[in-house]
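Action item from last meeting closed. Structure (99 res):
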């Protein structure tokens, strides 16, 4: 399979999961937890594929992409940090609920 096609499909999968989460309803806690766990899994795998396979190939093929690749890796680290915080978050918690 073409790597770019795979990465685009990953993006579509995660977008779909975010929409499912938004449509799940205010009290669909188990469903939201399941969706959130799937998002975490999908984004973690996606970031790994980009960092270990796609970015090194891009840097080798087009050296001018180095700055962009490094910026993307930094963004991944921020995303993975946020995902680690979401892993243990109670689905009944929202931004307005104190912890």
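Sequence:
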């Amino acid at each position: 399979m073409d790597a770019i096609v795979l990465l685009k499909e990953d993006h579509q999968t995660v977008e779909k999961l975010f929409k499912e989460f938004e449509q799940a309803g205010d009290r669909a806690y188990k469903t939201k937890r399941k969706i959130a766990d799937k998002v975490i899994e999908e984004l973690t795998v996606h970031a790994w594929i980009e960092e270990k396979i796609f970015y090194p190939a891009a840097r080798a093929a087009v050296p001018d992409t180095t700055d962009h690749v490094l910026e993307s890796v930094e963004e991944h680290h921020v995303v993975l940090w946020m995902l680690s915080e979401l892993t243990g978050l109670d689905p009944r918690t929202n931004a307005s609920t104190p912890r």
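Note appended to the action item: The chain is about 75% helix and 0% strand.
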